[in-house]
Amino acid sequence: MKRGLWLLFLLAWLAAPLLGIVPPFWISLANTIGIATVVVLGLVVLTGVGGMTSFGQASLMGFGAYTTALLNTSLHLSPWIALPASIAASVAAALTLGAVTLRLSSQYLALATLAWSVSLFYLAGNLDLTGRYDGIPAIPAVSLFNINLAAPEKFFVVIWVSVALAMLATANLLDSRVGRAMRALRGGAIAAASCGAPPAQAKLLAFLYAAALAGWAGWLYAHLQRAVNPTPFSFAASTEYLLMAVLGGAGHIGGALLGAAIFTLLNDRLQSFLPLLIPTPGNFELVAFGCLMLVLLQTAPEGLWPHLFRPRPQPRPIDETLALPRRNIPPPGTLLLESIALTRRFGGLVAVDALSFSACAGEIVGVIGPNGAGKSTIFNLLTGVDQPSAGQIKFRSEEITGSNAAAIAELGIARSFQHVQLVAGMSVIENVCLGAHLRGHAGPLRALLQLDCAEEAALFAEAMRQLDRVGLRQHADRPAGSLALGQQRIVEIARALCLDPVMLLLDEPAAGLRHNEKEQLATLLRQLRAEGLGVLLVEHDMDFVMQLADRLVVMNFGAKLTEGAPESVGRNPQVIEAYLGTAA
Ligand code: ADP
Ligand code: MG
Fold first, then answer.
1. Structural domain that includes position 445
2. Strands 413-415 and 551-556
3. Which of 42, 345, 348, 567 has the fewest CB atoms within 10 Å of its CB?
4. Residue nearest to atom 12 of ligand 1 (CA)
């Protein structure tokens, strides 16, 4: 129904200029807006979703534009054959740049794209191949079924069909298995890694996708103008695209269109209005935009879209009969995780000091100790979030020391975090679904074309089952950030369970829970133990951990103070002095 309405709206929009009822000036502005929207959609994914700033989108657009210009003029290929080549050229350029720069932190990435943008501008301006600063003229018009689409009102159709397709593709991509991994880049990157979705991969994908859209926009630009030169692909143009993204709302698909439209219209108005106000020649509209940007970043850093439309996660229908294949759980008592003389030094501080202990299937091992004893650090070491300075980690008797978080998740080791790592803006069920990342296989292409529906349905069914299990089913469609902190910890447990784990590591899961919620959690953990899972539990609530744990490991200053059954540990005078004594 909703899609039908959108389609009807699009058809009316496409038809209006063809009917001759729209003045040419407005068609030309709309064409500029459309092309900019395609580029800015890439920035929505890259900057708004992925948190990476790029000053190089116009350069990537240039790769697309010059590719089609060269293929059309020198090789006389059809523009339609040049389209995939243009997109491929931009993606290949981004791959080269990304391989070198994506490991950089975000401000250095921004600087690198800036440098790249400036150097490519001069390169295009000085190479004979690209026609130097004059560029490449006489690019043939696009035609379809022998209809020449050179006239702006006809090319309008090509541009706005592209905008619609790019919006749809972006929406499909973000609402997919790989899309959730990209959305976790801001705020939940460590958690995503621990769910088996490496942030580096998600970053690269966002970068390449944004480049593909830039290449597509470059192709549109070249065939609209029928000529290319370096100016529209300069650093200044890249900055304008970034401004549009920030203006519209970098985290929202609609924000791309809104930002491109407001910027283009305002730019046009300012260019005709400011010379009347200030007679001295100069690009004063840039000053106006600078001021606007400052005001906006102060008052609406999320851009205008969320303020105008207040988007909320949409409830999604879930077919809970769908199931995913399960992992084989080893019999109770099987040795699972071993920490062998693990050590982690932070400069002079020894946070974990030659710590050895193990955990078996069907067993709850409590790790207790005063604040700063090294409990969270040992969890980070065991799950590949951090690497040990010395010592070994074994899982099911195989050495896994040095493995990264995603590789460890693949073995069936899942965890929650003391400092909650949820993506606040994503719905609760989507956050939980991230935990099932490794149980799906659909890549970006299947996501873009929405060929992943069956798999997505099964992943969401699993997420709902786990949410139900932890008692938070009724909150499935709420933004995760709107839940109480205690509930957010429980959402993390549901996410961990979605991995279908063999071993579960929970860092202070009961903190912030009410009494009956703690009872519920205790029941769940007993049930998981009965199912044969191994559970490592860091907890400050002594009653909670004493009633649950089969064994306790007591840590103090990074080292193991003692280990044993809860009753004997509770009577140990050293423990009482180091921990229980101070806690009492
Ligand atoms: P616990 O979870 O038992 O409260 P942690 O494992 O968080 O303790 O911390 C153990 C010690 O290591 C603390 O003194 C803490 O300040 C230090 N520490 C933890 N992470 C880091 C880090 N990334 N850099 C420096 N010191 C750290
Ligand atoms: Mg801790």
1. 422-498
2. unpaired
3. 348
4. 351
Tokens found for residue 129: 């191949």
Question: Are 209 and 193 found together in one domain?
Answer: yes
313 lines ligand 1 (CB under 6 A): no
Within-domain flag for 317: no
Q: For ligand 1, atom 1, which residue shows the shortest CA distance?
A: 372
182 and 246, same structural domain? yes
Residue that terminates a domain, selected from 229, 249, 266: 266
Residue 376 CA to ligand 2 center (angstroms) comes to: 4
CA of 550 to the centre of ligand 2 (A): 21
**Cα three-residue angle 340-381-417, rounded to 5 degrees:** 135
Query: What is the per-residue pLDDT for 301?
Result: 81
Q: Which residue has the tokens 């065939």?
A: 223
Residue 68 near ligand 1, beta carbon < 6 Å: no
Q: Is the CB of 351 under 6 A from ligand 1?
A: yes
CATH assignment of the domain containing 108: 1.10.3470
> Which residues does residue 169 pair with via DSSP β-bridges, in sequence order?
none
Residue 376 Cβ < 6 Å to ligand 1: yes
For ligand 1, whether the C-beta of 372 sits within 6 Å is yes
Q: Which of 377, 386, 387, 553 to mutate to test the pocket of ligand 1 (most atoms within 8 A of CB)?
A: 377
Task: Note the pTM of the prediction, 2 decimals.
Answer: 0.93
pLDDT of residue 580: 54
Assess if residue 91 is contained within a domain. yes
Asked whether residue 195 falls in the same domain as residue 258, the answer is yes
Q: Which of 264, 248, 209, 232 minimizes the C-alpha distance to 117?
A: 232
Which atom of ligand 1 is nearest to 507's Cα?
2
134 CB-side CA count, 13 A: 6
pLDDT digits (tens, 9 = 90+) for 102-124: 777 777 888 888 998 999 999 99
Interior angle at CA 52, CA 51 and CA 55, nearest 5: 140
Ligand 1 nearest atom to the CA of residue 347, by list position:
25
504 strand-pairing partners: 414, 535
41 pLDDT above the threshold of 80: yes
E strands, 275-320, are none
